[in-house]
Amino acid sequence: MTRAITAGVDGSPESLAAAGWAAREAALRGLPLRLVHAWLWQPLDVPIAQDREAEARRAQALLDEAEAEVRRLHPDVLVTTRLVSDTPVPALLEAAESAEMLVLGSRGHGALLGFLLGSYGQQVIAASARPVVAVRARRDDETGAAGARAGEIVVGQQGGREESEAVLGFAFEEAAARGVGVRAVRAWSLPSLYAYSPGSLALADEAGGLEPFERKALADALAPWRERYPDVPVTEHVELGSGGQVLLSVATGAGLVVVGRRVGNAPFGPRIGSVAHAVLHHAPGPVAVVPHE
């Protein structure tokens, strides 16, 4: 079954930017686009007239307007729409299950807004089994003059080859579809007393020190993807610092920043992770959060 690129819309500038980004992605990948809007009739306990049918028509009109705009800009993309009778979080998570990726509107430099009021956006990103891309409407005064080479895919890599597989795979697939390069970023920090085992420190010594050890780990993780995508240029970036800070320092001008989110049972429910959280809130462009084991 062909998976569609799915975008959540609500009429806000952020969600319309997400729909436009999703349409371009669908065109690049030769995939269909599905626009989803969640609307659930919840009558208010107030002494005023409430018209369920009128509200339903407004919800459908919002979806129709988004569809018309996407079709106008991307006439070759197969577009379908779905009005879901549910609240946003379960509606989006259900839509994501059968999607290639889910695309949402993000305000940037703050919490996700619009279709994702309050903490809804973070809930969806933290719980989705599929990659989620957050897109925000750009202001006219924003430029991409510094940082990443314009349009390239910036991806954060951590851990070993298996842990990086889903994140790097997504980044290289994006780069190949767009005809751009990948900038693979690995951040590292000086170990605390308990951070490294004697075995790992021995491996670092064999590599010639901590930074060469980190460079070798990044090169090893990239090796199978370089072989699979020989036409994708790769820039390796290893830097001392926190993952979020290092990624954000090179994110300006990137076509997409890709970060991972570990799948597991956290004691307080699903979490995005500190690196993804920082990049989602402060990156100037679209951010993809890819779940991995």
TrEMBL record:
**Locate the UspA domain: which residues?**
1-136, 153-291
Q: Which InterPro entries has this protein been placed in?
A: Rossmann-like_a/b/a_fold (IPR014729), Universal_stress_UspA (IPR006015), UspA (IPR006016)
Indicate the family of this protein: Belongs to the universal stress protein A family.
Protein name from the UniProt record: Universal stress protein UspA
**Taxonomic lineage of this organism?**
Bacteria, Bacillati, Actinomycetota, Actinomycetes, Kitasatosporales
